[in-house]
Write a structure and sequence with these properties.
This protein has 203 residues and is of the alpha+beta class. Helix content is 25%, strand content 36%. The protein has a five-stranded antiparallel beta sheet. A hairpin with a 2-residue loop joins β9 (177-187) and β10 (190-199).
Length: 203
């Protein structure tokens, strides 16, 4: 997983295909446009580290109804992409199977918002600082990993596995998809969650 901030016009020119730039241009919000570009560039950096294509423009992140997928030289790579951004910073990861990431700037979460993403029995699960942010971040990543149509954050059931000063590990289940999600401080002001599915619903 790579994290990128402060994307320049030159960065966009070097990393993003005409199709990707056209899609970004359709985003009305300047901030969201910059954040989305940063996340895609982060994923392209991972693609280069993995040796996928000879240059960033040979890789394209293609939107789909389930999760973004990576095309290399115009052909599907069979790899999935997960993107996230928060306050001008973008993160991107490339995975062989269903996975999801979420990036959040560390900040207080209003307890009144918990009802929009937590079940009643999940609220007291953590008593640490920024507990609600850990739970929110974990649910976002798990929801992306499941890619379950019609599901919401409240559809994601979390169970605490273990925790340390820097990280918290949960198991999750949503719409028949089961997996593990970990939240971790990757910098003093950023919280990153990475979820991977260990079992998928039977078709």
């Amino acid at each position: 997983i790579a994290i990128v901030s402060e994307v320049s016009d030159e960065d966009r020119r070097l990393f993003l295909t005409p199709e990707e730039l056209e899609w970004l241009a359709s985003i009305r919000s300047d901030r969201k446009r910059m954040d989305s570009a940063a996340a895609r560039i982060a994923a392209k950096i991972i693609a280069m580290k993995l040796g996928l294509g000879g240059a960033p423009l040979e890789c394209q992140i293609v939107r789909s109804n389930v999760a973004p997928v990576l095309h290399v030289n115009g052909a599907p790579s069979g790899l999935t992409v997960s993107l996230s951004h928060s306050e001008g910073i973008g993160a991107g990861g490339i995975f062989e199977g269903p996975a999801g990431i979420d990036l959040q700037l560390v900040r207080p979460v209003n307890p009144r918002t918990a009802k929009f993403f937590l079940a009643e029995d999940e609220v007291p699960m953590l008593s640490r600082e920024h507990a609600l942010l850990h739970l929110w971040c974990a649910k976002e990543a798990a929801w992306k990993a499941s890619a379950a149509p019609g599901s919401t954050l409240t559809s994601v059931c979390l169970r605490l596995v273990d925790e340390s000063d820097l990280a918290v590990r949960f198991s999750y289940e949503v719409a028949g998809s089961i997996g593990i999600v970990e939240t971790r401080f990757c910098e003093l002001d950023l919280l990153l969650a990475v979820a991977s599915a260990t079992s998928l619903p039977s078709s």
